[in-house]
C-alpha cells in the first residue's frame, strides 16, 4: 500500500520530528569520511524548511553502548549546516527540559539536531515512555531513514503511536524503486548476487527466483554453488550448511542460475598475494577463490546489456584488495552502461560505484543495506508499516 509523504500534510509553523539516517563512517579523529547519507536527506529537509516547518532531526551514529563522546552528533550537525547554508543547532540530549525549552524557542525554518538517539537505552528497546518523550517535542513525525526501517526502535516505530507519521522523499524513493523489483519488474529481469555466504541471500533468492529471468552468482557464495556441482574449490569459502540448498537450487532452476566460468585464485588473502586466473574446474587444492574472472565478466555483461530490470546485491570478489576488485568493477561498468532500470542494494557496492564514478548512472542505489534486503525478501519493515497509508483521512490527507 502507498504511504503518505510530506507532500500530503501541512507543515507550516508545525514542529516536525524527522528521523534521518546520518550513520556516516567516521575517521579516527571523528571526521566524516563519506557524507552521502546526509546529502540523501537534503531534499526532504529543504522541502520542510521551505514550507515553514520547525525541524527537529534525530539519528543514530555507530553502535555506542550508552553515552560515548566518539559518537556525538556534533560533526554531523556541522556538515549538515555547511550543506544547507544555514545554522543547525546541535543539542546534547534527545529528551528533557533543555530540549523542550530549545524547541519552544524555535521559529519556522529553524533546524535542531538532537544527540545520538542510541545513547538512550530506550531507543533500541522501543521503550514506550522514551518514544512518548520524543513525540512530545513535535506535531508531526517524518521518517526518511529507510536504512533503519527494519528496526522497531523508539525513533522509527514507537513515536508513530503518538504522532501522525509520513514518509520523506528518500523513504518514498526507496519504496518505489525496491517495490518495482518485487511487484512487476520489466523483463528480462536480471538479479546479480555476490557477497560471502549463501545463507545471507536465501530470502532474496526465494522471493525473486520466480520473478527473475536470470540469477548471476559471484562473490564468496559462488564457491558453495561450484562445490554443489561437484567441483573442487581448494581453500575457497564454503557455506557447508547450505550446500544441499545450493544443490537443490541448481536442480530446480538450471536455466536461470548462471555461475562463473573462470575465477581469480590467490595463495592468500592479502595485497601482496600471488594470484592467477583459472577455469572453475581447475582451482588448485591450496588456493583460494577471490574474484570472478574476465571471461565471466564478459558473460555476465551480456546478460546485463540485454536486461530491462537489474537488481544487484553483493560484490563479485574481495573488493577491498585492488587485485581482487576487477570482477566487481567489470560488472559495475556493465550495469552503469545498461539502459535497464538498475537498482543496487546498498552496502559495499554503493561505495564501489561511487569510487568508480558510476553512481550517477544507476537508477537507484539503496541507502539501506539490511533494510533493502529484508524488503526484497518480502518482509514487513516496522518503520514502513507504521507510516500512514495514502487514502486515510488523518492529518489532512
Order of helices and strands: EHEHEHEHHEEHEHEHHEEEEHEHEHEHH
Compute the CA-based radius of gyration.
Answer: 23 Å
> How many beta-strand segments?
15
Proportion of strand residues: 5-15%
Helix/sheet category: alpha/beta
Q: Mean of the pLDDT scores? A: 94
Poorly predicted regions: none
Strand order of the largest sheet: 3-4-2-1-5-6
> Could you give the distance between the termini?
15 Å
- Give me the number of helical elements: 14
Helix content: 25-40%
Main beta-sheet strand count, sense and barrel state: 6 strands, parallel
Question: Which term fits the overall shape?
Answer: elongated
Descriptive report:
- This protein is an alpha/beta fold.
- The protein contains 14 helices and 15 strands.
- The chain has helices at residues 36-50, 74-84, 97-104, 121-124, 128-135, 169-182, 202-208, 222-228, 243-252, 294-305, 326-337, 348-355, 369-376, 382-385, and strands at 15-19, 54-58, 89-90, 111-113, 140-143, 165-167, 189-193, 214-217, 257-258, 262-266, 275-279, 288-292, 309-313, 341-344, 364-365.
- A 6-stranded parallel sheet has the order 3-4-2-1-5-6.
- β10 and β11 form a beta hairpin.
- It starts with 14 loop residues before the first strand and ends in a 12-residue tail after the last helix.
